[in-house]
Design brief:
By secondary structure, the protein is of the alpha/beta class. It is about 55% helix and about 10% strand. It has a 5-stranded parallel sheet, sandwiched between helices. It has a two-stranded antiparallel ribbon with strand order 3-4. Strand 3 and strand 4 form a beta hairpin. The longest helix is centred in the middle third of the chain and has 23 residues.
Length: about 210
């Protein structure tokens, strides 16, 4: 597949391990995986603080969505909504730039919609409540000491905003099985154990596609 691109997108519930899966598939295929790197690049190229970009790109895009119908602006936007739209557009362009450069894996950011013309392999990762809570606690940022109730609220809010961001781009629903080529439940088995089998599945899919 030397002359053909392998482009994989990973959508995921918060705490389900989508980022880890992306990194492991990246190691297996020897191709770059982009996640927070997208935020860092926007911040660097546009002169923003990374935390601000992250906040606006995933947590505030829904504030702009009610101002659009059929993806056309119908009224004046406040500054926050305008910035959210601008960052969303920049994010999409950077994701397209990565795909145009070659094989890659994009985690989150509705990349499957943005890269539709590249016919990527689209994965959705999910897990049960208990496993997601355990993973969130294990990988919590230094100094973050949320209670279980607070962490559950954070999980719900982030997933809700991810769904809203997708709604801004397309009519297909976030997490709807028909939208993806493979849906993976990480509740009962370690990602490192299933990653090789997922990679084999993805590899076979691309072989069939290119046959």
């Amino acid at each position: 597949m030397e002359n053909n691109k392998i482009i994989i997108t990973i959508s995921r519930e918060f705490g389900s391990g989508g980022r880890e899966l992306g990194k492991r598939l990246s190691d297996t295929f020897g191709i770059p995986c982009y996640d927070k790197e997208i935020i860092a690049l926007i911040a660097k190229e546009d002169g923003f603080d990374e935390n601000y970009v992250a906040h606006m790109s995933e947590k505030k895009i829904q504030s702009a969505y009610p101002l659009t119908i059929g993806h056309q602006f119908i009224t004046a936007m406040n500054h926050e909504a305008e910035q959210a739209i601008k960052i969303a557009i920049r994010q999409g362009k950077i994701i397209e730039r990565f795909a145009a450069q070659g094989s890659c894996i994009i985690v989150g950011r509705s990349a499957d919609v943005i890269l539709e013309k590249y016919s990527p392999f689209n994965i959705f990762v999910y897990a049960n409540r208990e496993v997601k809570l355990q993973r969130c606690k294990a990988y919590a940022p230094v100094g973050e000491n949320l209670t279980t109730a607070e962490l559950e609220q954070k999980m719900r809010e982030i997933d809700k905003n991810r769904a809203a961001y997708r709604s801004f781009l397309t009519d297909t629903k976030w997490g709807e099985k028909e939208t993806y080529h493979l849906c993976i439940n990480t509740s009962t088995i370690e990602i490192k154990r299933i990653a090789p089998y997922i990679a084999a599945y993805v590899n076979e899919w691309f072989k069939q596609k290119q046959a």
